[in-house]
Design goal:
The protein contains 15 helices and twelve strands. The protein is an alpha/beta fold. The longest helix has 23 residues. The protein starts with 6 loop residues before the first strand and ends in a 15-residue tail after the last strand.
């Protein structure tokens, strides 16, 4: 079953970069003001002896992947940094020669074992969650996919057929996928451009009246300024989930401000998504939210494209949070919950109708879960982790290669623009937004589609 295109790992190196946020970002009820990037370089070799270096980068995102309700911010960040080094060492010791998806399948159990041991060694009150482990591993997986493509002289998305993969998808998923491969669920060329979802954080000012002191750094600061500067038509709204009056008022206020701004631009069509980051206590809260939005002034309800992870990420622990009634009204997608195929199937049983893919959960997982979501006729979105630079290029490339994904979230330009500066000149259509879209047509290079700084 081996292929001449299979790769083995020769060496792995990593480093961290840290950037301060331009303004704080609040999600899941927790504000954060900086990010730490994990950068990984993997030297690989094909069975034919061709070598190449792959690169992967991703924010550690500990507030999202290992929330403060589990352990303190400093503990979770330290755990992810230490986990990074241990997983790099384990990757370097891997002797398997295979397709990147098979390397991921072989490495993940070892990574999870390492996370258990580290949790015990650090005496963490809550052991490192699987989501945290896959987020920390994601730049390793990205670097392996990138190296695979470069060593074989192809874009990595063109190495997903039976000519390159030793197993069909039934090996990783279930019997529905017998004889099917990832090339059937991905595109050979990227979509030329995709609408950008702009994030409206819970702390973000809507108008001048919300700003006590302007930053005055040359970037937009109010919502109308962002819309006019970037030509935005897609807006993602972060909500609190524990204050229904505030959540409803926030959405209706946004609708009012956006309607006035788009009218001045002569734009009549735009969209929202609503992200509660699992803070709704139950489904009743969400249903009442939708009723009140529909009854409110304006067309916010009509423009609401989907709802993201409204209740707790632990689906097994909360079987009462069934989304069937919500899904009859609007698509409702899992995000934090999705760590493997088992949770996708459980989410389907509990009424979820969509999936949020994220590059920060690993390229291999994103490809497999994207295929599963398409096969099960689910709504698909690609979401961000405030990914700057190479990590956003990775995320944009994923969104551009998966059918059914119609837009891409990208908020590093708002919260961490300094981390994009080194990439802006080479990828202006990705990092300079003027018509509300990301120009993904440029992501066609060998590997994951972009060069490395």
């Amino acid at each position: 079953m081996s292929k001449s295109t299979d790769i083995r790992i020769l060496d792995v190196n990593y480093d961290f970069e840290e950037y301060q946020y331009r303004t704080p970002l609040k999600f899941g009820g927790v504000p954060t003001d900086h990010c730490v990037l994990l950068n990984v370089r993997v030297q690989v070799q094909t069975r034919n002896g061709i070598e190449a270096e792959g690169f992967g980068s991703m924010p550690l995102g500990n507030v999202w992947a290992y929330p403060p309700r589990y352990v303190s911010f400093d503990q979770s960040l330290e755990a992810m940094k230490r986990l990074s080094g241990l997983m790099v060492d384990a990757t370097r010791e891997c002797t398997l020669c295979a397709h990147p998806v098979d390397l991921s399948e072989a490495l993940e159990p070892e990574f999870l074992r390492i996370a258990v041991e580290l949790s015990e060694k650090m005496q963490l009150d809550t052991p490192i969650p699987k989501l945290c482990t896959v987020v920390t591993a994601s730049p390793i997986d990205a670097a392996i996919h990138d190296g695979f493509g470069k060593a074989n002289g192809i874009n990595s998305y063109n190495g997903l057929s039976k000519d390159f993969m030793s197993h069909d998808l039934s090996h990783y998923l279930n019997e529905k996928f017998v004889g099917k491969y990832l090339d059937q669920y991905t595109l050979r060329t990227p979509k030329p451009k995709m609408p950008l979802y702009h994030l409206i954080g819970a702390l973000d000012p809507l108008t001048d009246a919300d700003i006590a002191d302007r930053i005055n750094d040359g970037l937009p600061e109010t919502l109308p300024e962002w819309i006019n500067a970037d030509g935005l038509t897609h807006l993602k709204i972060k909500l609190n989930g524990d204050n229904l009056d505030w959540d409803v008022a926030r959405v209706l206020s946004i609708e009012k401000v956006v309607s006035e701004t788009q009218a001045q631009r002569g734009v009549s069509e735009w969209y929202y998504s609503a992200d509660f980051n699992e803070t709704c206590k139950d489904v009743a809260y969400l249903l009442e939210f939708l009723v009140r939005i529909q009854e409110g002034e304006g067309n916010a309800f009509k423009r609401l494209a989907y709802i993201e992870q409204p209740t707790d990420r632990d689906l097994k622990a909360h079987p009462e949070n069934r989304m069937h009634k919500v899904a009859e009204i609007k698509p409702v997608v899992i995000d934090e919950s999705l760590t493997d195929f088992e949770t996708l199937i459980l989410a389907l049983e509990q009424g979820y109708s969509g999936v949020a893919l994220k590059a920060c959960k690993g390229q291999s997982q994103a490809l497999l879960m994207g295929a599963a979501a398409i096969e099960y006729d689910m709504f698909l979105a690609v979401q961000d982790l405030t990914c700057p630079g190479a990590s956003f290029l990775h995320s944009a490339g994923l969104a551009a290669r998966v059918p059914r994904v119609t837009a891409i979230e990208g908020n590093s330009r708002q919260f961490c623009p300094v981390a994009n500066e080194a990439w802006r000149d080479e990828y202006p259509t990705i990092f300079n937004i003027t018509d509300g879209t990301v120009g993904t047509h440029v992501l066609t290079a060998n590997g994951l589609g972009h060069s490395v700084k």
